[in-house]
User: Fold this.
Amino acid sequence: MNREIVLKKTIENLDRLPDHKLQEVSDFAEFLLKRIDDQILTEGIQKLVADSEAFRFLEDEEDLYSEDDLKERFK
Assistant:
């Protein structure tokens, strides 16, 4: 289904709902939009951190521990 058909069908269904159910649909739509905004923000922060030079010094640091330092291995 394309966007126009889905919108038309949704509006037709909304017209059939009682008023108290319309508020639930509105709240759910706001929830979905907030979740999308949060995801965009999180991805932006992750990209900013990944592109940052702040932790590049850790790449040159030698490893302090190896597998030989383990007391017990996971089986």
User: Anything to note?
Assistant: The chain has a mean pLDDT of 90.
